[in-house]
Amino acid sequence: MDEIRHEIKVGTSRIMADSDVLILVDGEDCRLGHMSKALCHAGRGVLHRAFSLLIFNTRGELLLQQRSPTKRLWPLYWSNSCCSHPRGNESMRVATQRRLREELGLTCALRFLYKFQYHAQFDDDGAEHELCSVFIGRCDETPRVNAEEIHDWRWIAPAVLQAEMDGADREKYTPWFRLEWARVWSDHRATVAALQPRAGARSR
């Protein structure tokens, strides 16, 4: 992939665009330029394009991952199945499938659910500031996790997860996943249920 060598300014930070950096956007998800992952997450963060994947099995359980202890932001917190960013000139379709393979060793069809913007401050030196597209999918394969990214994983029934989100255990989850799950639980349960095979149907 050819590298793009133009530069733009966001505040006082210099932005270089190439295939290995993140995509800066405005609130309408219009591309503004590119910036390194480190700079995107430094300080208060700079708004960039991201995605979150929620993978369910045929029993209706959601795959959760516990983030690696080496993560700069929210280490060892539990989160959704997979989340990351498209690279500089990468489409969302390519990026989501790439990251699903890289983190979990899985491949499955994904369905776009909704998009939202959020800001979450981890400490004085780092934050998430993302315009995040949420996708759902169904897969019964056993994850083959990347230990550099994921410390642990588990399947959880939605009702059990919601009970945890309603109690003190919600603090063990990443802030973006808490926001995502609240919306899924309130607005998209029927869509999630439709992922499950009908009685007598053979699952993929």
List keywords for this structure.
204 residues, alpha+beta, Nucleoside Triphosphate Pyrophosphohydrolase, four-stranded mixed β-sheet, three-stranded antiparallel β-sheet, 11 strands, 21% helix, 35% strand, disordered N terminus
Structure notes:
With 204 residues, the protein is of the alpha+beta class. The chain has a single domain (7-138, 149-193), classed as Nucleoside Triphosphate Pyrophosphohydrolase, CATH 3.90.79. Helix content is 21%, strand content 35%. It has five helices and eleven strands, in the order E-E-E-E-H-E-E-E-E-H-E-E-E-H-H-H. It has helices at residues 37-40, 92-104, 158-165, 175-187, 189-193; strands at residues 7-10, 13-16, 22-25, 31-35, 48-56, 62-67, 78-79, 82-84, 110-123, 126-138, 150-156. The chain has a four-stranded mixed beta sheet with strand order 8-5-10-9, with helices on both faces. The chain is globular, with a radius of gyration of 17 Å.
CATH homology group:
Nucleoside Triphosphate Pyrophosphohydrolase
> How many individual helices?
5
Query: Quick check: average pLDDT?
Result: 89
Query: Strands of the biggest beta sheet: in what spatial order?
Result: 8-5-10-9
What is the rounded distance between the termini?
34 Å
What is the CA-atom radius of gyration, in angstroms? 17 Å
Task: State the CATH class.
Answer: Alpha Beta
Derived structural class: alpha+beta
CATH architecture: Alpha-Beta Complex
Report the uncertain regions: 1-19
Instruction: Spell the H/E element sequence.
Output: EEEEHEEEEHEEEHHH
What would the CATH topology be? Nucleoside Triphosphate Pyrophosphohydrolase
Q: In one word, what is the shape?
A: globular
What percent of residues adopt helix (DSSP H or I)? Answer: 10-25%
Q: What percent strand?
A: 25-35%
Largest β sheet strand count, sense and barrel closure: 4 strands, mixed
Question: What is the total domain count?
Answer: 1
Oligomer: single chain
Strand count: 11
